[in-house]
Amino acid sequence: MSLLAALSVSASGMAAQRQRAELLVENMANSDTTRTPEGGPYRRKDAVFASQPVGSPFAAVFQREASAYSTGVTVEEITVDDREPVRRYLPGHPDADAQGYVAFPRVNPVEDMVDLLGASRGFQANVAAMAAVKDMIQRSLDLLR
User: Measured in whole angstroms, how far is the alpha carbon of residue 14 from the centre of its chain?
Assistant: First the structure.
């Protein structure tokens, strides 16, 4: 794997973790949303990662000849929680049904905070990998001087 392809792999990981973090923050922000434009409470969303071939425009010829493709990561799909919402007895709430129950989203803020920490650490790991590759490229250039 070339150094430039390694940068592409880390960049794809950073983009995927950023998108995952955005979904987790959206989940936490809407943990008490009982009414959406689609009707009903907010539905929790989650990112599904998949590997994808990643190439560098500078190394494309070499990779094609050597058949050594690197794989990065992408968000393949965004799943929406289809489980029944949590029902709480709040008869004075504007969204209460005839029995006085309100449908709330199935969002666990503690679980989403832990997932957000994981996404943050994954992003940081990709930044560290990019910094290491950048240092290797810089040292290579210094040797060529």
Answer: 9
In this predicted model, what pLDDT tens digit does every residue of 32-77 receive, in sequence order? 999 999 889 999 999 999 988 765 555 555 555 454 566 889 999 9
**Who's near 9: CB < 8 A, 6+ residues apart?**
1, 54, 70, 71, 72, 129
| Identity of the amino acid at 39 | G
Helix H or strand E segment including 51 = strand 45-54
3-state secondary structure 70-139: EEEEEEEEEEECCCCCEEEECCCCCCCCCCCEEEECCCCHHHHHHHHHHHHHHHHHHHHHHHHHHHHHHH
**57 DSSP 8-state letter:** T
In whole angstroms, what is the distance from residue 41 CA to residue 96 CA? 12
Cα 132 to Cα 144: distance, rounded to the nearest angstrom: 19
Average pLDDT of the residues of the chain: 88
pTM: 0.81
Q: What are the residue ranges spanned by the domains of the chain?
A: 3-83+109-144
Tens of pLDDT, residue by residue over 86-103, are: 999 999 999 999 999 999
